[in-house]
What we know:
By secondary structure, the protein is α+β, with helices and mostly antiparallel strands. The protein has one domain (2-319): Cytochrome Bc1 Complex, Chain A, domain 1, CATH 3.30.830.10. Helices cover 28% and strands 12% of the residues. Strands 1-7-4-6-5 form a five-stranded mixed beta sheet, with helices on one face. β2 and β3 form a beta hairpin. The model is unreliable at 20-74 (pLDDT under 50).
Amino acid sequence: MLVILAHDPDIPTELAAGAEDGDESMERPDGGSGEEGDSGSEGSSGSEEWEGGDSEGEGEAGEAGRLHPGQGGGKQQKRAAAAVCVGVGSFSDPEDLPGLSHYLEHMLFMGSERFPEENEYDSFLQQNGGSCNAFTDMESTVYYFDVNGDRLRGAMERFAGFFTAPLCLEGSLEREVQAVDNEFSNCLQSDMARLLQLLSSTAAPGHPAGKFTWGNRASLWDTPRASGIRVRERVLEHYRSLYSAERMTLVVVGGNSLDEMQAWAAELFGDTPTGRGPRPTYEAHGRPFVGGPTMFLAPSVRDRHVLEITFPMPSLLKEYR
Length: 321
């Protein structure tokens, strides 16, 4: 696993004078965290400025580490933060369970061997001024949190369980598939989401760009169960076959020393499964769109007129440096 650590001396590692654990004045001004139910597949995390300026899904990654009111006359206090990017996403969904990568992302929030209670992670963050979220993209999945600087270690302990020993409890399956379905339903009237699905539907037959990446109750619960598919087993199989340390990058920002954060990362994430090989690539599928230039005219849900031009290009990641 690649680990990147950043020491920020402006992030306090002790509670402000006079504050106590769980003191409401130390919590986020909005009173809580970004629920994991806000996560979505590609498109839900994009800014939708032409639809009024608000993103319709997660898309709040920039909030980690923002200033917020703390103790002592409105003094501003930075928060610590961490994120893990896993180099697999919705392109890896099996044909018979569309949206499985997004569903797995939801299920990893539902407890681990060390912290088996469903809401332990989210509750800990809320009680300590933090927030959490995640999103599933086509070729990657990102999980992240922020928290008061003195609680970074505790947040990392709970976060690490996502990648070392998640439970994916049977009792959580239907609740979380409903959360996925709610996200899908909420985006039915989103012009951005509709255009993204239109783009997917025009991809070359058999190319992963043509997959239904959101997932909903029909694709992840009703239809599979009617076909005799044991959904929990497939969720766990998806995790075990795709999530691997060499496909992950962990980033931690805190007020603690680099040596201390390095020791935490090694201790807490050292048991992450490995051996799956490099992240998947998709060159063998060829170009996602074939034929000459094509125009699609799509009625807008909102009273907007937008011209969007898409250029399919080969991956330039190898040219990055």
